[in-house]
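Re: the request from the purification team.
They wanted to know what the chain is likely to look like in 3D before they choose a buffer screen. I agreed to run a prediction and write the result into the notebook, where they can find it.
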Amino acid sequence: MTRPRPPSKVAGMAKDSKTAGAGRPRRYALAGAAIDAPPVAGGLYLVATPIGNLRDIGLRALETLAAADVIACEDSRVTRKLTEHYGIATPLTPYHEHNAAAARPKLLARLGEGQAVALVSDAGTPLISDPGYKLVRAASLAGHAVIAVPGASALLTALTVAGLPTDRFFFEGFLPPKQAARQKRIATLSGIPATLVLFESGPRLGAALADLAAGLGPRAAAVCRELTKLHEEIRRDDLANLARHYAAGAETRGEIVIVVGPPSDDAETVDDVDDLLRHALKRVSLKDAVGEVALLTGRPRREVYQRALALAKDIGDGAA
């Protein structure tokens, strides 16, 4: 298959005129075959893109990106890797926190002409830690259709693999980079009765974990790094041990999500703890089962130990 020529390689943006992309093939490539994308109505399309593995994209997302008149993206160099991989020739135009005020009226003008504008972030779902909500608000107020094309999200991916309660969670985004402000914000977060999900950069990971340990106490947590990528790492432990691990020089490159369990009063019920202990005691020793369940639930180790002893006695009595 002959791949369509990529959009202009001018740094930061492709053609941004009313006729950009006119006459181009509106198709995408999948498994070596070129597939025509069905037309889409005018409107703003919020298209989730992969957070690492390019195969984590839906057919509807590919169709929308191929059929749209323009793709508004944070960094054209990042998005072009995705569009070239799937043979999509839709023009790219930048929309990010530094140019949003100037770029937003141009995108709204396109919507006013009946065009289909696809909004993407560098990875994951648009509007999560990016400035897209202002565009959505303006488009909605102007009467334009706003359509979500859901898909990958680092936030939800990390939450589901962390092994911590998921019934209630609070997404904090990035903590402040300066320690004093970070510690003040963590003190505010300490009273939230839910699992916390945070983004963090590699250079600040050790310091952030240390401040979280000091401000939140011995909560169970998980550091999820490079999710869906070749060097994916998910490390589960309490905050203090995680802080020591990364302060000692462990690898911190890549995209990082921190998931922190809720305060102990909001952790699993006694019945939940008992169920976890029963399963753990079938696999490992009592000591290891206690450590594993205390870490997963955030319950005090002594409390879990007492429950384990009672369960072990019940199991023994039953066997007798």
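For the purification team: Residues 1-20 have pLDDT under 50 and may be disordered.
Please add any questions underneath this entry.
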